[in-house]
Design a protein that fits this description.
Blueprint: E1 5-17, H1 20-27, H2 30-34, E2 40-45, E3 52-62, E4 65-78, E5 81-87, E6 92-101, E7 108-120
Antiparallel strand pairs: 1-7, 2-3, 3-4, 4-5, 5-6, 6-7
């Protein structure tokens, strides 16, 4: 069986008028940042792995029919931003990077978000453990 690896990267930019350290501190608040997704129903720190969260999301299917899924989100804080590495089911992984561009003391900043989505068909093959 032929397997494939598909990766797509998207970049979003948002100008903000705020203090650099305040914006970075919001990005370093992982539960807050994760809960900005309206589909997230819970965020819990994984007691077995530092800087890792168990994130449960609501998955609408049709009408009022829905499901839920839980994934792991590893968080790495950087000086000017943060990186989230998410391992979801069926060979899907997402890396989200936020960074703040600008200088301390200047209120015209730019928040840049890069999202890379990778899907592997080999995770759906027989014997893959899924």
């Amino acid at each position: 069986m032929v397997s494939f690896l598909l990766t797509r990267t998207f970049t979003f930019q948002q100008p903000v008028r705020a203090d650099l350290q305040e914006v970075v501190s919001w990005l370093h608040n992982a539960p807050f940042l994760i809960k900005l997704n309206p589909l997230v129903t819970s965020v819990e720190l994984d007691p077995s792995q530092p800087n890792t969260y168990l994130v449960t999301e609501r998955l609408p299917i049709v009408g009022s029919l829905e499901s839920h899924t839980t994934s792991r989100c590893s968080v790495i804080d950087h000086e000017n931003g943060v990186e989230h590495a998410i391992k979801a089911g069926f060979g899907t992984s997402v890396t989200k990077r936020w960074r703040v561009e600008g200088k301390a003391g200047v209120e015209d900043l730019l928040v840049v978000q890069e999202v890379s989505l990778t899907v592997s068909s080999s995770a759906c093959e027989p014997g893959s453990g899924v």
